[in-house]
Amino acid sequence: QVRLVESGGGLVQAGGSLRLSCAASGRTFGGYAMGWFRQAPGKERDFVAAMDWSGGSTYFADSVKGRFTISRDDAKSTAYLQMNSLKPEDTAVYYCAARRWGSASADRNEYEYWGQGTQVTVSS
Description:
With about 120 residues, the protein is mostly beta strands. Helices cover about 0% and strands about 50% of the residues. A hairpin with a 5-residue loop joins β4 and β5. The radius of gyration is 13 Å and the shape is globular.
């Protein structure tokens, strides 16, 4: 079992930056592919970014490409989502997810473990 806890959300003005963290516990972090998803009120949970289990491959939604980066620090059992040039349409609850030995997948059904989410609000 892997427990994921997100942090770093908050209120920011358009054009600003935030860094989300996803701290994992329960099992060795290395070997887990990580994904970030977001859900705005009344909408589906959408893919944002993912990194494969080795950290060698990343994948981004078109809407965040060039603005967001994903990284991981296996020694700290933590994944990160750096969000720059934020827009009001980035407002959502952001979730991290993990799957064992996985590729960088945009399919939320492939992830085994989920965090509780952290709210990101971007004001115009």
